[in-house]
Fold this protein.
Amino acid sequence: MLFLILRSLIPSTTTNIYAFLSYNVSVQPWQYNTLNISTSVASLLASFLYHRFLVGKNLLVVVVATTIAACLTGILQIYMVSGLFNGITLFWVCIVIMDINSIASQMAFIPLLILVSKACPTGYEASMWAIFFSLNDLAGSMGGKFVRVRGKREL
């Protein structure tokens, strides 16, 4: 459970990309909503892909593969900030990066949910899920506060 809290405490790609868009690219308010809708659809797609292709597979392999995919997304962020995507609208690059990260994160999160549900005693699943998601939300809020305390950094 501590691993899950620490995993959620780390600032996400979304935090970094929103900061980049806010400070370096002039975006309209509707574009932030487009990013949110796009990542929600990508998460839904990831749930479908997991259910269709990865149910019954070794959970360790799934977690490792999705962690590697998330690391590759981090490399794309470095390329974006360093200017290697010049000539392409950075807003669309952000959408692609966030969608890839959404899919990887959701596909890494589902096996963790499965492990938590297998670990809890029969009849206590609802309480365990409530605790799990409460801690996940708390860690996400703490990660956001961490970024806020650090202040604006030049990208």
Summary: Residues 80 and 86 are 8 Å apart (CA to CA). The chain has a mean pLDDT of 78. The radius of gyration is 17 Å. The chain is about 80% helix and 0% strand.
